[in-house]
Amino acid sequence: MIKIGHGIDVHAFIDRGLPEQFVTFGGVKIPHAKSILAHSDGDVLLHALADALLGALALGDIGEHFPDTSDDNKDLDSRIILRHAYALVKQHGYQIVNADMTIICERPKVLPHKDAMRANIAADLQTDITNISIKATTNEKMGHLGRGEGVQAHAVVLLAKQ
């Protein structure tokens, strides 16, 4: 038995006026001119991936498991969200076959940080790094992503019954 899940997340950038700002993708803090506007740490990559895992199991989305109306989730590390989703995968008797993700933004550049992101995700999903794919693309300067107003991520996962 196999199951496929798809997840998508998008967050706006915000200039907090701080001397050092960053964004977090795949659990990696990346220096950037702006920060992410979000209730949690705003890691779009991990949010999309967690939603893909939950979706494959028909268990809703991360908003149902970690509502943004709860102060307990304020500034929450998204790796906690991912580990929660993976615990449900294991609880239902599945394992990760692979995960394929894409980040869409003009900046920051993802390539220099891709291996660290893959390592974090592989560790959290208790799988080999060769099962984790991360790609990045721009929006060719079109729309809100192209104007650098935010970032979007897509994730697809394949699960197999253990």
TrEMBL record:
2-C-methyl-D-erythritol 2,4-cyclodiphosphate synthase domain: residues covered: 2-159
Cofactor binding description: Binds 1 divalent metal cation per subunit.
PROSITE patterns noted in UniProt: ISPF
Classification via Gene3D superfamilies: 2-C-methyl-D-erythritol 2,4-cyclodiphosphate synthase
Keyword annotations from UniProtKB, A to Z: Isoprene biosynthesis, Lyase, Metal-binding
Top EC category: lyase
Site features described as Transition state stabilizer, chain residue numbers: 39, 138
Listed EC numbers: 4.6.1.12
Binding positions (4-CDP-2-C-methyl-D-erythritol 2-phosphate): 9-11, 39-40, 61-63, 137-140, 147
Cofactor: a divalent metal cation
Keyword Metal-binding: yes
Biological-process GO terms, alphabetical: isopentenyl diphosphate biosynthetic process, methylerythritol 4-phosphate pathway; terpenoid biosynthetic process
CDD domains assigned to the protein according to its UniProt record, in alphabetical order: MECDP_synthase
Function comment: Involved in the biosynthesis of isopentenyl diphosphate (IPP) and dimethylallyl diphosphate (DMAPP), two major building blocks of isoprenoid compounds. Catalyzes the conversion of 4-diphosphocytidyl-2-C-methyl-D-erythritol 2-phosphate (CDP-ME2P) to 2-C-methyl-D-erythritol 2,4-cyclodiphosphate (ME-CPP) with a corresponding release of cytidine 5-monophosphate (CMP).
Quaternary structure, from the entry: Homotrimer.
Protein name (record): 2-C-methyl-D-erythritol 2,4-cyclodiphosphate synthase
Upper lineage: Bacteria, Pseudomonadati, Pseudomonadota, Gammaproteobacteria, Moraxellales
